[in-house]
Here is the input.
Amino acid sequence: MVRHHRHLLLLILSLAASSAAVARAEDQEDIAPYKMLRSLQFVQDSVVLGDHSAAEMQRFMLGTIDQRLRTIDPAVFDDARNVDAALIYAMSGGNPETLEYLVARDVNGHFDNRVSDVLRKYLSGKGLLVAKSLVETANEYKDKKIGPYLALVGGNVTIAKSPMEALKLYDQARLNAPGTIVEEAALRRSVSICVETGMVDKGLAYSQRYVRRFLHSPYASQFADLFVKLLVNHDHEVKPDNVVDILSFIDEARQREIYLRIARAAAIAGKGDLARMAAARAQTLAGDSDNAFGALADFYGGMAAISTDKTGTAARNISSIPDQELSPRDQALRAAAKAIAEQVLRPPDPASLTQATAPKSYGQEITSEQAAGSPEAEQGEIPNPAPDPVGDAAAPPPSNVGGQQGADPSFSAYVTSSRSQLDAIDGLLNKESN
Here is the structure.
């Protein structure tokens, strides 16, 4: 498919060069803007479908159309197709000053003032001032050639204040321009809205459409970031089978990359189940742990196991991975994980368990440090628990509780040291997740 596109692009380039020569010979009177726009649209659609070599051709076509529009006989806009071409060119990455140039010289009223005015505001960075008018114009022109483009830019200006309105416009844009750069942008931005608003089911549906259509787009990495964020932020609402089904449309190499992204982000966010699932899938796709991908899958899986009852094994596993297998960021992440594991596995100082002779009377507040140092806490029991709001008020008080650990200097020093180390670790993880 990509080879086919490249051949067509070479043909377009050849035709464009020939047309340019003919145009110079004939004062460029025979090249209609709408015909040139078709070539630009084909090139842009080829880029998002995977032919990245077409990007240079896109720049060439934008420059060629810009020059043509500025030197054209105004009578050519008697044909409404050329008016649409000029507007679409402006919304497709063209020079916004060219639209200003054409509108200023439109003495015959070829350009609808409502459309040209809102577009000029949008292209000059003042789209919020005409957001309402832009939405109304997009709905009015939804069945016209410029409709999908107007819907796309309408969604762009309304997304901040009204995500639901923007989502409707993006749906309108992609349904009226399937398989194009417009649909690619609309789908990607729809996933973004779903991430921010928590619409998981819709987000997964949009993600599946994107994966099936535009996985080779140069913007696919942005989509992957959004997809990972959707899963990690809403892990309890996403079934593993849904993730597997969506990614099954992707080749194994790209699946592995995305699963590793999911595993890493989930491990940092403390979403152990999701991290382990993604790491296991990545390990399966990697084949074994003798390659870099397998090592990364093992690492993220080990990270996810730090918070389980297998802390010791997980710490040993992530420590056994050579530094050269990990990026500097992952090395920092491993250091944080090892520090946490050391705190979890460190045996308590015997001196901190010494109990004072004075018993604590019933009803006296017990601190968390005292609870942590009591024998009952080691066995999973909480001394002097708070009374249940609906419990029996006449229940007898406990016969004994832990001693006053707050008076033990050794215990206090241990708590202070542990807290400072954990605070430093939390800071490192927060910085890493950003």
